[in-house]
């Protein structure tokens, strides 16, 4: 989107830069602990905005504070919904709708983004989802916390990637047997 924004806002996710999809969305947005603005641009010139007062979270329940707001910005401006428990994100919990939803009525959401991030639906009309942007509107401290969490996750993944085992453990390890089956009889035990 082309607009001026306060200097402390930070772009968390732009589908044109980061790739479109629920995995990319989750990776860039979930660990940000502050209010956000999410812009959904569809074909036919539609643009929606979801203003969340708290961080995005994955759940089978709707969430959001009293000041949460759902807007249609284009082609005509209108307030679609305002109030608590009006946002929803689920990509993994079985038995519940997948994707992003917004609105007062969980049975009939005002805005829906399917789990493949291909369509955004408003009032039962599907539009091809062209782009998604999420802006972090909290303090610079919120962004620092997000980056700290991401760095910790990277370090944990690296630490868990290296598996250290003793010679005795290696003797009974399935990988050892696979190497032997493949004809590799000489291997390091260090």
From TrEMBL:
InterPro entries (alphabetical): TLDc_dom (IPR006571)
PROSITE patterns documented for this protein: TLDC
Record-given protein name: Restriction of telomere capping protein 5 isoform X2
Pfam families: TLD (PF07534)
Positions of transmembrane segments: none
Sequence ranges assigned to domain TLDc in this UniProt record: 1-138
